[in-house]
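By way of example, we now present a protein record of this kind:
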Amino acid sequence: MKHCYQFLVALLFVSTGYGQENILLEEYMPKSIYKIPETKVEKAKYPVIDAHSHDYPSSLEEVAQWVKTMDRKGIEKTVVLTGYTGASFDSIVEVYAPYKDRFDLWCGLDLSDYGKSSFVKTAVEELKRCHKMGAKGVGEVTDKGLGVYVAFQTNMAEGIHLNDPLMSPIYETCAELGMPLNIHVAEPYWMYLPDDKYNDGLMNGKKWKIDMSIPGMQSHEQLIAQFSEAVKNHPNTLFVACHFINCSYDLSIVGRLLDEYSNLYVDMSARFGETASIPRYMRKFYTRYADRILYGTDNGMSAEMYETTFRILETDDEHFYVPDYHYHWYYSGFDLPDEVLRKIYRENFIRIMK
């Protein structure tokens, strides 16, 4: 990481030729010069269920404001991947109770007994208890290379990966309870590449980088293979692999897994930046797998955020920048057909929750 930072600071400058102003690559924020149509989509074309969000509000007032924003933007319901268990999950149920028809709360996994013989029993019992408290699913269960953990928890089952036999009773319990699992596998592929001039994601190299020198760190390929094995071994369990399984760089991997496993879905959350730079290919992919993709954001509660996702999915706008996504790439809309929009916005989620 230190090497990457030095690389950026020392080498990545733009000399303008006029005053020789030096601009760090991380400061580069271009604006499109093209005089072409710009579409503002203030509300989704069809009702939307956001299948990937988190517990962003810091007060009851912010929850109420979030609901108002959802109303304006056409968001029928939001899935809050809390990651919480125990008292934390119970308290969050109370927070969202006034809007229980607008939010589905998903719990985490209790990994506190990892390393003890009671690990599986504790995890399964807490999972059942959270289900009784109203949890509709589990997530965001994560393995970025060193072991399984859950978003917003400090405990990690270090060395246990998604295909570990210790995870099997958890998956089977989810199947029995009808609780899908939202799974975060690996990270975007460029984070594993050398931090050199050929890295297409170097813009974020200073902030995000997978250090493969850490003992036990799994490669991108290993993590995808381990996840695939878990999905294969538990056909009655429904898995939602978020962020296109972090395989936006090669969607044939995603397509192959969707073709092989009927119990697998993907969500698009937080990967608009990685996909809106290849709009024609994405339109074909969304159309082919329209029954298996869920709308998700994973990017806060703002009205502008929702509008940006709608613009990418619904319009044929070209060459626009989204600084909030932190990349140097420019984006274009997918202009998805109506039948595809209806499925990814809402119908697929309704089907899997039944």
About this structure: The chain has eleven helices and twelve strands.
